[in-house]
Structure formats: structure tokens, C-alpha cells
TrEMBL record:
The protein's name in its UniProt record: UDP-glucose 6-dehydrogenase
Active-site residues, record numbering mapped to chain: C280 (nucleophile)
Organism placement in taxonomy: Eukaryota, Fungi, Dikarya, Basidiomycota, Agaricomycotina
Known catalytic reactions: UDP-alpha-D-glucose + 2 NAD(+) + H2O = UDP-alpha-D-glucuronate + 2 NADH + 3 H(+)
EC numbers for this chain: 1.1.1.22
Domain UDP-glucose/GDP-mannose dehydrogenase C-terminal: 336-452
Assigned protein family: Belongs to the UDP-glucose/GDP-mannose dehydrogenase family.
NCBIfam families xrefs: NDP-sugDHase
Alphabetical keyword list: NAD, Oxidoreductase
Chain positions recorded as NAD(+) binding sites: 13-18, 38, 43, 93-97, 134-135, 169, 280-283, 350
Pathway: Nucleotide-sugar biosynthesis; UDP-alpha-D-glucuronate biosynthesis; UDP-alpha-D-glucuronate from UDP-alpha-D-glucose: step 1/1
Amino acid sequence: MAPVKVTKICCIGAGYVGGPTCAVIALKCPHITVTIVDLNQARVDAWNSPDFALPIYEPGLVDVVKQARGRNLFFSTDVDKGIQEADLIFVSVNTPTKKTGVGAGFAADLNYVELATRRIAAVATSSKIVVEKSTVPCRTAESMRTILEANSKPGTRFDILSNPEFLAEGTAITDLFSPDRVLIGSLQTPEGKSACQSLGDVYANWVPKDRILTVGLWSSELSKLAANAMLAQRISSINALSAICEATGANIDEVAHAIGFDSRIGPKFLRASVGFGGSCFQKDILNLVYLSESLHLPQVAAYWRQVVEMNEYQKSRFSKTVVDTLFNTITGKHIAVLGFAFKADTGDTRESASISLIRDFLSERAYVTIYDPQVEEAQIWLDLSEACPNTPLENIKKQVTIAHSALEACKQKEAVVIATEWKEFREINWQTVYDDMSKPAFVFDGRLLVDADKLRKIGFKVTTIGRGERV
Ligand SMILES: NC(=O)c1ccc[n+]([C@@H]2O[C@H](COP(=O)([O-])OP(=O)(O)OC[C@H]3O[C@@H](n4cnc5c(N)ncnc54)[C@H](O)[C@@H]3O)[C@@H](O)[C@H]2O)c1
Ligand SMILES: O=c1ccn([C@@H]2O[C@H](COP(=O)(O)OP(=O)(O)O[C@H]3O[C@H](CO)[C@@H](O)[C@H](O)[C@H]3O)[C@@H](O)[C@H]2O)c(=O)[nH]1
């Protein structure tokens, strides 16, 4: 069966994945018309804004959108038209952890995937290749196929592919320009393989062919969960070791450097921290835990659950270190928290470790001043309200202030907590920060970001993750 030559792509979901991924496809494939659709009018308006005030912050994204928007890249809320016109449809909707019902707290909520799939089935009038881009549990493609086939009109067919996304926020554009690999899963039938080639040909416009991996559908779905589980496991492993370093006087930087030199281990993703955040790691591991339990594999479930538990431990251990170091009480004390995003170079706050720290500080009745270069004030209030469900927002606001610069945040505070690895925190004038702080002036570096010795020379009392010495 000859592969369909893709000329029109629709992406359902204009979020952190759908937006950048399909904007890059449009840029790299000027012969393909790409329409990204979303039900969220405000989001689509932001993607279309004349001054390119895009709904997400991602280095390099504005340049990509500037080049392609209006040429062969379009953003719209007309989901049905987008579906009808396309020959290939990406489903890139959110798959958060379920909050209620069976599997609550672990399983992925597939409601958005199902609704998008049902919409495709309801309005498609010609054959489509439907590509699962969202991260989903193993065998979700089968459910999508069942829905689509049960609703297909005479003469139309649907081929389902899995094409999980591996971009990381903050580096999305470079990841998409030069991916380690593009993974495409398909049924191993002539039709499935032909659909797989159609999508592979789209990526081949800029991705070397040896980086386009083709596998079975279920392997592709599971590989996405597996990749995130293994990455998060590395962080929990190095964080577990950071606790041993603090207790023994070993230095986690030196340990990471030493083990990373072993080519079988490698140096990446070994940075001890206050804990991993982001919308994916925790969600996808819990999803794997749920899958393992559903498959009656309790030991496997317990193994992966421990990665998340270690992360929770790391966050609470850091909060406790702050309290212990500040003479066992932070009640009434003023603390600056630098960074609210879950990592640098993004405005995304989902599962940010900063939120857990601030919640702990508020419960100890400290006063907190937050500064982040990218996160909107409204988002901070929303996240803190969710983190402290029993405290009305007006009470939270009595304890929390939002500053407009790092220097302003640190002024007259007793302690500075670095929660996100923004480069500007390394480069601020620490002498000025010191001069303006109450004394003794404490710095708690949750990201191994600053030169602790230099700060100590200025006069700070510095506590760093994974290092025994504390003055
Ligand atoms: N954020 C990441 O870095 C990342 C990376 C790789 C994979 N993923 C996975 O990709 C998926 C999307 O993640 P995201 O971060 O882009 O989510 P997101 O919440 O930023 O975006 C999802 C968008 O889908 C829209 N949507 C939901 N249902 C819809 C429907 N029926 N019709 C039209 N629009 C609809 C929502 O309005 C939202 O704008 C998730 O499964 C996630 O696990 C995310
Ligand atoms: O050595 C490290 C590396 C990362 N982190 C933290 O881990 C979290 C996740 O970071 P990162 O993986 O860089 O960002 P994400 O955007 O969450 O990307 C992950 O999740 C995506 C969604 O599934 C995948 O596509 C990516 O491949 C995967 O890296 C952040 O809080 C980081 O600060 C550390 O603490 N130490």
C-alpha cells in the first residue's frame, strides 16, 4: 500500500507540546499546511496575537512562529474544520492524573483524549491518519481505534499511530530541531506500516533517517512512560545520595562528576536538586505504577512508586533543613524564594518544587516573598490557593508578597531560598543582596547554583543540597 503524502496536518491541543511541535513542523515543511486547534479561545488568541505574546514561554519559539504563522501555520478554535481538512491529525491534549474515580491519584485521565477522538469520528468525512501525541497508558491506541472504527463513515478509514513527544520545556525548540530520536509506533499491518511511513516522511524533512525509529504501537506507548521513569529515577537516585553526602561530608557534585565519567552511566541528569517538578515525571510514573498494579505486578509498582516517594522526601527534607538552620523556627521570619517555575527557561509551574516549599513555609507561619522572571502573578496565586486549600486567598496574601526583581525580593529578609535554577540568580550582585539583608544572612541553595565559597566570603551562611558543611 503506497503511503499517503501528507499535505494538511491538524493538531488538536495548542499547549506546551502541540504548539511548539507543530510550529516546528510548519517551519521545516513549508509544503504542508499546519492548523493547530484548541477549545480554549484565550490560548488561541494568544497564539494569534499581533505582538507575538504567545501563551507559553519557550526560548526560540517566537522566531519560529514569526516565520511560519500566516504562511502555512494557523491557530484556530474551529476544531471540526481543522479535522475535516487534514489528512493527518495529531492528538496532543492534556492527560493529567485522575483526581476522582477509579485509579484516582495514579491513573491518567483519558477523558480529553477520548473526547478529541470522538470528535474526529463524528466530523471526519475522509480517511485520516490519527497520531497519538499525548502521553498515554499502554494500549490506549486500541481504545482510540475502537471508537474511530465504530463510527467511521463508508469509504473512510482511520490508521492510528503512536508518536510520543520527548521535548523538555525550556529547550523545546532545540529538542525539536535536533531530536535524539523520533519514535513512531504502528500496527505491523501493511496499512499500519504505510501510515508510519507517511508520518516518517514528514519528519524526514529535517530529522536524519537513522533517528526515526519505528516500532510496534504498544512498545511506542510504553517507551514514553519508560523514558520518563528512567530519567526521574536518576534524579531520585542522585537526590538519595545527596542526603548521604550531607550526613557524611561527601560532596554530591564530586560524586556525580566521578560516577558520570563512567561511560555506562554518563554525566547528564545527575544534578541533585530540591526535587523534580513539571507536568510529566510524577504523572507518568504514577501512571506506570497504576499500569503495573492493574497487571498484578505489585513489586514492579512498588519499585517505581519509590521514585516519587524519594522526590517527596527530598522536598520535605529541604524545607526541614531551612527550619532547622534558622534556629528551629521560621515563625514570623521573612524568607525570599527565588524561582517559582519547575525549572529554568519556562513559565510553567506544574508540580514545581517551589510550591511545596512555600506551602511548608506558610504552614510554619513565615512571611514569603517570591520572585520569578517568567511566572505570571495570577498563576502564583492560583497555585498557592490550590496548595493550601484550607486557607482563603486573602489570608495567603497576608503572608506572601510577589516581587519584581531578585534584589527587591531579598531586601531585608533573613533568608534566601533558591528554588529554580534561573541563570540570573547566579549572576545577581550578591554583595548588594547581603548588604540589604537582616543578619545573619542565610542562603539555601536548592539547585547547586551559586558559588557557595564566594558567598561565604561575603558573609552569608550558606546551605547547599548535598554538601555536609553548612556555614
Ligand atoms: N509539557 C511537556 O513538556 C510534555 C512533553 C512531552 C509530552 N507531553 C504530553 O503531551 C500531552 C499534552 O501536554 P501539554 O503540556 O501540551 O498540555 P497542555 O495542557 O499545555 O495543552 C493541552 C491543550 O489541549 C486542549 N484540549 C483538551 N481537550 C481538547 C479537545 N477535545 N479539543 C481541542 N483542544 C483540547 C486544552 O485546551 C489545552 O490547551 C500530555 O499528554 C503530556 O503528558 C508533555
Ligand atoms: O539533573 C537534573 C535534571 C532535571 N531536574 C529537574 O527535573 C525536572 C524535569 O526536568 P526536565 O526533564 O528537564 O523537563 P521536562 O520538561 O519535565 O521534560 C521531561 O518530561 C517531558 C514530558 O514527558 C519529556 O518529554 C522530556 O523528555 C523529559 O525530560 C525539573 O524540575 C528539573 O529541574 C533535576 O532536578 N536534576
